[in-house]
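Please annotate the following for my students:
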Amino acid sequence: MNLFITSNPNCAPNDALKIKLNKAFIFLCEEENITNCSINLKIINDTEMQKLNKDFRSINKPTNVLSFVNEDISKEHTGDLGDIAINSDYVTRESNEQNKQYDDHMIHMLIHGVYHILGYDHEHNEEANNMELKEINLLKKLDIKNPYK
């Protein structure tokens, strides 16, 4: 289980956050019984996220996290599940507005993004409740408060 983290220079995570993100990813994989897999995580800023959101979702504004499922034929051989982009600027604003710890919110965004890659969604109430419950339970095991309160 590998989490490959890259970032823009102006939003690079510190080493402590990288360790926490890796731990959360490994823990999620263990909880979901997923082995021999990897995800590419890029931490970006508002400008880059707005471009991604516009290009892939036709929404011309930044957001906190986007997930891209690897649909390539090589997936079964490489274990590469997909890519996640987390917007550090957006997470900073949300953390301040919602009185959350930045690192905890980044971990939540990673977990949220991974669950999207695994096929979970929040388009309908039942799906949203199922996805949120998985996130809440996993975050609790990582000593992170319920982000939906």
The domain at 2-141 is CATH 3.40.390.30 (Collagenase (Catalytic Domain)). Residues 15-31 form the longest helix (17 residues). Helices lie at 15-31, 46-57, 75-78, 88-97, 102-117, 125-141.
